[in-house]
Specification:
- By secondary structure, the protein is α+β, with helices and mostly antiparallel strands.
- The chain is 16% helix and 33% strand.
- Strand 1 and strand 2 form a beta hairpin.
- The longest helix has 13 residues.
Amino acid sequence: MKRASLLGVVLLLVTARATGQQPAPAPTSETAAPATPPPAQPAPHPAAPAPAPAAPSEAPTFEKDELAKLEKGQVVVRGEMYTNAAGKRAGKGKAFVIINKPPEAPWAILNDYEKMPEFMPRLARVTIQNRTADGMKVVQELKVLFKTVRYVLDLKFDASKKRMAWALDKSSKNDINDTFGSWHFQPWNGGRTLVVYDIAVDTGAMIPAFLEEYLTKKDLPEVLMAMKRRAESGGTWKKD
């Protein structure tokens, strides 16, 4: 999200030099015309400063088919597997959806974090350990297929950008090796919201690699559709 270039001002110094010619004889009082002062030269206008370049937009770009899916209310997913610094497999993903409400609507849902298990798929329990002015520490229990995954997250809320980022609290006991990501609610045309959801998961040795792909790619449409339904219902929609 995050610069303007500094333009130098070049000053030109003009030095007048004498011509070296002898002056013409001064006219007599009978023939001399009254001296006429030279017309005043207008002061040069200072050069207008160059406009600062616009800040880079945080809005993502989409292919034509992706935009068509978004406008139909569908989720666009981009995911991949990668090898982390320790040489282990890990998964990361990004997903998008349009909510037919302004950004304040999903932002309010996200700030009511203890109610996330009411509508978020596979999220069984959230326990808030402590709160600060712009964040909280939470314990989450996630039911994925035949496993229950428990981990502790540090959440950071940026109200000005309508963005919440999370990271694993590695000082706590966790069932996964690492995770980090964010929710970002950006204004979209027609008074709507573009949801940008990022997630990376490194499950370590305890959870099979297929669960990493499940959490970072196959599960993303359900996660974003749950947020969409909850926000568009005014905070009343719940999962079965």
